[in-house]
Amino acid sequence: MSRFDYRRYPAFPPVPMTSRRWPDRQIRRAPGWCSVDLRDGNQALIEPMTASQKSRMWDLLLKLGFKEIEVGFPSASGHDFAFVRNLIENNRIPEDVTIQVLTQAREELIARTFESLEGVPRAIVHVYNSTSTVQREQVFGLDREGIKAIAENGARLVKDYASRYPDTDWTFEYSPESFTGTELDYAVEVCDAVTSVWEPTPDKKVIINLPATVEMSTPNVYADQIEWFCDHVARRDSIIVSLHTHNDRGCAVAAAELGVMAGADRIEGTLMGNGERTGNMDIITMAMNLYSQGVDPQLQLAGMDEIIETVKACTQLPVHPRHPYAGELVFTAFSGSHQDAIKKCLTKREDESQPWQVAYLPIDPADIGRSYQEVIRINSQSGKGGVAYVMQADHGYDLPRWLQIDFSATVQAYAEDTEGEVGSTEIHSLFEQTYLPETPRWRLHDYQLSRADGVDKLQLTIQDGAQSRQLAGTGNGVVAAFVNALEGFVGKSIVLVEYSEHALSQSADAEAVCYIQLNIDGDRSCGVGRSHDIVQASLLAILGALSRSPGLSTSAAA
Ligand SMILES: CC(=O)SCCNC(=O)CCNC(=O)[C@H](O)C(C)(C)COP(=O)(O)OP(=O)(O)OC[C@H]1O[C@@H](n2cnc3c(N)ncnc32)[C@H](O)[C@@H]1OP(=O)(O)O
Ligand SMILES: CC(C)C(=O)C(=O)O
């Protein structure tokens, strides 16, 4: 039989709650954030961070505005110990920032932890032990009382060692590690035992951190667990309930969000979700989720590219191009209908003080240092809206709709041939080759306009290969006279169907650009003319449209 056998995995039992309040709540305020990049994130790396990588990460975390940062497990290694000493001895901890360190509930480790913190003005000492059924039975070989005793002993030791360093303002934190695999009544019993040792008050709270050490259920079940815990734990007004979720089922952020709705006050997580196995809860995503709902995330995340660069350099892990908010491709639309909708919304958006309402873009990319240039990228899935956006945003051409349709067919054919993305410069060159070729079929030499009896008369010279041709036409206005001259030249009827012009915004010396669509004996053809003179731009556009018309042979012209 195959080992791929779902029957080996029992379903996670629901929490027996008859009524739950959290589904009706909204998060309207950011929780307290604690970065665990330098501890949980670091302990999961193939190569743990070097001292300089840790320093770089520390500096970034300060810059982003974290006020609580777990900086290591100082009793575990000389490196972690030295890093904590470095921060303290070099006065690198700002007054509004508190460092946090982790320790097991063992005396020698707790003693060493306090040694590492000597002289720190304030710190959070975080002690943990596993409480789940699996860990109790299989790892520790202890019953409920035995495991609770480890927690109580750890709490007592932490309190005792803290009293030996009276100059430091201590905060205590306890985690019933593997909380999500722990019976809820038992988790409450253990945490109550810990807080009865610590005796917190509303003015001097302790932190009780409830980890989804392994994510085992849907986020709603985690939220039930948190609400149940908050409702039953003793001394709730003296406890900061903290969450620490992992991403085994891909829902760490959702679980943390629902957990906050269920009553939690504080969140531990990492930047971009680095951490054990599938990672810790990603603080960037959760904070930006708040931001996108109009809630101040209390973190400065405007420089997303710097964050990514630092995280990559410190963890030596890539950031997925589709990572929420941060990935290289998350604000990019390749597909035609998305591009069309984005372009329309952006074009209509005149008043920046109005709420952001742009299809397919949950936030304004500019808020996190991304430019609109990255928003729309072109490949064979793209449509006219995207091509028009690039032509306008990057090159200053405001193509009318009928020309967008005409030109996007050229770009589409090119994208299919090259089987890849078509860059902005390539799109521009395609436009020039198509509508403004360096060696056009016919070149306008010179022209003279005169007016008599209300009729305009145009005389002009056209270069047709090696020959110069003199043409003349009449009409109401220069364009009509030119069209009339060309009708005689090619022997076909020509109707001016569309006309549009504008100053070329990207051109420093104010060139004008003119777009024309002609109907030449039933065939439509588009042309573009560019010149410092608007009349000349119109004539060039008409000649360009005529040159591109497939129905004309040189002999017809002759
Ligand atoms: C979910 C988490 O992320 S928890 C944090 C995990 N992080 C780390 O472990 C990284 C740093 N840790 C280390 O480097 C090592 O574990 C050290 C140096 C701290 C300790 O190493 P060791 O002394 O070899 O102990 P180890 O961690 O293997 O555990 C050994 C013993 O401690 C017990 N123990 C484990 N965790 C705890 C705890 N939280 N509290 C009390 N005892 C514990 C174990 O049951 C085991 O007991 P036994 O020797 O009687 O069987
Ligand atoms: C020590 C605890 C908080 C932890 O890292 C976990 O459970 O993942």
From TrEMBL:
It catalyses: 3-methyl-2-oxobutanoate + acetyl-CoA + H2O = (2S)-2-isopropylmalate + CoA + H(+). It holds the Pfam family IPMS_D2. It comes from the Bacteria. It is found in: Cytoplasm. One of its GO terms (molecular function) is 2-isopropylmalate synthase activity. CDD domains: DRE_TIM_LeuA (cd07942). Its EC number is 2.3.3.13. The keyword Protein biosynthesis does not apply. PANTHER family: 2-ISOPROPYLMALATE SYNTHASE, PTHR46911. This is 2-isopropylmalate synthase. The gene is leuA.
